[in-house]
Amino acid sequence: MSDSLHFEIKPASWRDLFAVQEIERACFKEDAWPLIELMAALTFPNVVRLKVINKEKITGFIAGDIRRVEGTGWILTVGVLPDYRRKGLAEALIDKCEQAMQMSRIKLSVRRSNQAAIQLYQKLGYSQVDVWSKYYHDGEDGIVMEKQLS
Fold first, then answer.
1. Which of 22, 32, 120, 141 could in theory staple to 28 by disulfide, Cβ–Cβ 3.0 to 4.6 A?
2. DSSP result, 89-132
3. So where are the chain's domains?
4. pLDDT tens, position by position, for the chain (150 residues)?
């Protein structure tokens, strides 16, 4: 992580619920997950959950769902607080999550208008494989992206 040597990535748990909720709201506004879904992501089996910590503050979060039957891992959510962006944290979270899921194929979805995220995912080897028409509550399409790992 460039310029971020004081950051640590650690497993997240239900104890991080309100910090993760803050990240979701800051990053996704009306698309933020409800509290019950965040609790599920922080407790359900087969979910990789990681947090970025800077001086005891949680500044980023990622959750990845391991779907062994499909042979696919899904990045369910990834977010970094606005003041901590552009420091390589999202990239580091995605990398660690991919490693932890140990799946040969990883997928995620992103708003069509979120060009910054799409560019990051492309940089990391993801490419568009599908479009979920009117996926978001306001009718915007979701772009499904996939990465093949060795």
1. 32
2. HHHHHHHHHHHHHT-SEEEEEEETT-HHHHHHHHHTT-EEEEEE
3. 7-148
4. 444 458 899 999 999 999 999 999 999 988 899 999 999 999 999 999 999 998 889 999 999 999 998 889 999 999 999 999 888 999 999 999 999 999 999 999 999 999 999 999 999 999 999 999 999 989 999 999 999 997
Q: Tokens 């992501």 correspond to what residue?
A: 41
Task: Indicate the pTM of the whole model.
Answer: 0.89
